[in-house]
Amino acid sequence: MNNQLVGLLSVLAFDLISGVSPVVTKFISFSVPSFLLVAIRFSFAAVFLFLFMLIFGKWKKSYLSITKKQLIGLLLLGTVGSGIASWLNVVAIRQIGAALTTILVNLEIPLGILFAVWFLGEKVTKRFLILAVCILFGVVLVTSSGNFNIAWSMSFWIGISTSLLAAILWGACTIIGKVLLGELSSMVVAFYRFAVASVFNSLIVFILYKENITNIISGVSMNDWLKLLYLGMGASAIALVLYYTALKRMEVKQFSLLVTLPIAISVILGVISGERFLIHQWIGAFIIISGIVVLVTENKKNKSLV
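Below the sequence we write its predicted structure tokens.
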């Protein structure tokens, strides 16, 4: 099985797992603070990957093989990609709502492609750019509710700036991850990212809720713990290993378009769970899926879009 096929299968498996994640998250009680949810999720992911490496004898090798330069990159992935950027995303949602925030943070996709051209020397053709624009248009349609209810105030500009900054940071982290994967395994990169992120987010939780953190944690129901366990082990640990396995074997520009599929999957699962979607959101999901089918088909036929 060649690298391109392994990468393609990995990113499609990641898409399926990630598409389920928002639906699971939606059913977690709102009494669980966002930062605590993220901290627990990433902690479960880090522990799961650590135990896996320990059991299969990969831990010592992964620990000894890390250089100082790589460690700096891993720290950036954890603190910036899964810490600061996630926090900025929460701030944006609370200022301008989930719909507009989702559209803006998905600028991570074209930014990742742009960064790949600038810093990694990847090249794009006119056909690829047209396909990218179509898929991004589909993303905008899916994530748009058609009613943002925005007041042009200071909170609006705070939300806009924080969501755009989150998109920039996530796009940059894709490039950092790609560089690290040239020397480290997907599992090692995923583990260190989650380990750093769990510590970072736990510190934020302690700072924000230190007076009643015990009561908050004890108030988490068993059902919510099970959902968090799935989010940590499945939608985080396994999903990110698949994510990095694909990124290691594919060019960033192709990879960035393929990881838009979870958005369409979330629409379908949302309908199954009782949500209602507008016609333009269905059209957007169709555009995303169609664009990805074209991308996959062209690659399979070895007709370069790039």
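The two ends are 22 Å apart (CA to CA).
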